Each structure stands twice: as structure tokens, then as C-alpha cells.
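Quick one, T. Sequence first:
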Amino acid sequence: MVVANMTTLYEIWRKLIKQEVHMRVGLVRHYKVIDHTTNYWMSSKDFTDWITQYNTADIYLQNKITTHQNWERCYSSDMIRAIRTAESIYNGDLIITDLLREIEIGPLFQSNHKLHINMWLIFGRLGWFFKHRSQENKTSTFIRAKKLLDTIEGRGDREVLIVSHGAFMTLLRRELLRRGYKGDRFTKPINGKIYTYMKEF
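C-alpha cells:
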């Protein structure tokens, strides 16, 4: 009877410890950007100008996230749309880093011929995937994701919120899964939604 009780107490203790020793990561794509574009048919120069405008645009704050999670730390991209989003979600001091920037995009080729903006965006991402010189270096992008998560895990925080961007979040999710985290699925993350991943130690 005593042995049985000791075994039961041990199992309860082990489960409690297991629950406490974990790391939870929340990924958030910034709130939707206020887009003042009036003509979506663009030359390569128009597309470059649009990217500049988009990177400096404000965001919609009408439907702010309410999170009941007790996040210990919040990391944010240094791009204004991410910082503004992080400030609206997290009350403490932000850790702002360029490691969380969106994957840079530009016109795959130079042309005065006007294409729809969606075509420029698709061409740009395909260019990045196939390592075209017009886009951010793909290897460097993956290194950014790994370096960021190495830094976070090295600090030992257990509840970490990360505010970043759509394309880069897909790499962060991939790296989290590679490291043994389990959590939400997404193809294209929704603006202003927290996707949660947890790893038990």
C-alpha cells in the first residue's frame, strides 16, 4: 500500500514537473496595412515605389488582439507595421530586431510594361525560392530564422511572443517544427492572429 501510494505521488510529481518545463512561442503577423494604392497595374519602377510606400504605411488597429497568455518576452521586427502591432498586444518593453524583417522583395526584372501587382509579388517570391540575384539571398534568410530562435532559446524564457511578417513566419514555423515544437498550421498567416507552438523538455 505504501509503495503504491509512493508510486502515485511520484507520477503526479512527474506530470507537474513536465507541465512546468516547456517553452511556448506565439507567432503573430502584423495587423493589416492601410493600402492607399489606386492603380494595381505597375511597371517595375512602380512596383519598387509601392514596396517603399508599403514599408512605411500605417496599420488598422480597430480589431486588436486580446491575449490571456502571460508572455514573458516579446520580440518584434524593426519594421514599423510590426512594431505598432507589438505595442498594441504587449505591455512590456519590446526586443526589436532586424532578424525578424520580412523577406525582401523587388521586381524580378526591369520593365516599363505594366503587370498586376500580384504578378510582381509572385515573380518576386519565385525569384527568392530559386535564388535569383534580384531577391534577398535565400540562405541568409534561413540563417536569420535560426539565429533568432537560437537567441530566444538561449535566454531561457518560457513564454515568448514574436511579431513578424507573413513570408518570414513560414520559415520560423518550419524551423520551430524542425526543433521539435508542435502547434498551429497555416499556409498564409492571417494578420493579427496568434499561432502557438510548444515544446516540452
